[in-house]
Design brief:
The protein has 307 residues and is mostly helical. Helices cover 74% and strands 2% of the residues.
Length: 307
């Protein structure tokens, strides 16, 4: 275990963490803001990349490909929202149905091939792993910091407006929001569309970063997104109260997650055990608030008995 090999791998882990941090922000909007467990993201985490890569392979401009990737993700969110609101299907099942459908759709987008590659030598890519150690404006870490800052700024502006406040009210108390005249079904659909559009953006960026898109690229993505959200809540929950800072905390949570994964791999973990490790990381960080609550209760009860 050479420390230099770990240090050499950290830039890549940080870059991936920032890309998945964008995805985690999308998960945060449904999981924390709307209070919906949306599993659509496992599908849209491949859809965005598939749309972006295939459009670029067919001659489309990078920015047009990214825009279409976001729109494709938003359509997937719309379908989940309609399943849930118009058909009365529970949100978690609606997400599963859309996710299953997206597997076939993603294959169709990719010409019924399991993966498609895109070479940075032949195409202009916004982020690529080849530049992760380059000192320049094309370093994916710097690019993703800028992308994340812009995304957080736009979301902070949007959720500060009336429609954004309605979305937050719907997630906080749906019945109270409805009593105030808010169309909660419309808010849920809009929230799911925004969330999956952001996830699709992360997918498009990740496909560029690794130079390929795979139909299984998003499998287990919800676990990484939830891990970032939960890590952020545990570490930054008491110091980040502003909405923009909470979004920043989610992005940092994804970076921390990938650094932890990289350290564990450096220690010699079999890469085939990564899914198990991811589940354990999420479980531990989910349990920390519970353990803290139990500990504080036991301390207070002891103080009462001693008094």
């Amino acid at each position: 275990m050479n420390i230099s090999s770990l240090l050499s791998a950290l830039p890549g882990a940080i870059a991936q963490g920032l890309i998945w941090g964008v995805m985690a922000i999308g998960v945060y909007l449904t999981y924390k803001v709307l209070d919906i467990a949306d599993l659509t993201v496992d599908g849209t985490m491949a859809t965005g990349g598939a749309v972006c890569v295939m459009m670029m392979l067919n001659g489309a401009n990078l920015w047009l490909a990214l825009l279409c990737a976001v729109l494709a993700g938003m359509i997937a969110g719309l379908v989940t929202g309609l399943f849930h609101t118009a058909m009365g299907i529970p949100a978690i099942l609606a997400g599963i149905l859309t996710q299953l459908s997206l597997y076939s759709i993603n294959l169709a987008i990719m010409g019924f091939k399991a993966n498609q590659g895109i070479n940075v030598r032949n195409y202009h890519l916004l982020v690529t792993s080849r530049n992760v150690k380059v000192l320049g404006l094309n370093n994916p870490i710097l690019v993703m910091i800028i992308v994340t800052a812009i995304l957080i700024g736009v979301l902070y502006w949007y959720f500060g407006r009336e429609i954004g406040a309605a979305l937050r009210a719907t997630g906080s108390n749906e019945h109270m929001a409805r009593a105030q005249g808010i169309n909660v079904n419309r808010c849920k659909i809009i929230g799911l569309m925004i969330s999956n559009g952001i996830v699709a953006l992360a997918s498009a960026l990740y496909a560029q970063y690794q130079g390929a898109v795979d139909v299984n690229m998003g499998r287990g993505g919800i676990v990484i997104g939830l891990a970032a959200v939960i890590i952020s809540s545990v570490i930054f929950g008491k110091i980040f109260h502003n909405f923009a800072l909470k979004l920043l905390g989610v992005s940092l949570g994804a970076v921390i997650y990938y650094i932890v994964i990289q350290i564990v791999l450096w220690l010699g973990l079999n890469t085939n055990m990564l899914k198990l490790l991811s589940a354990l990381v999420v479980a531990i960080f989910l349990a920390i608030p519970y353990w803290k609550g139990k500990l504080s209760k036991s301390k207070s009860s002891k103080e009462v008995r001693n008094a």
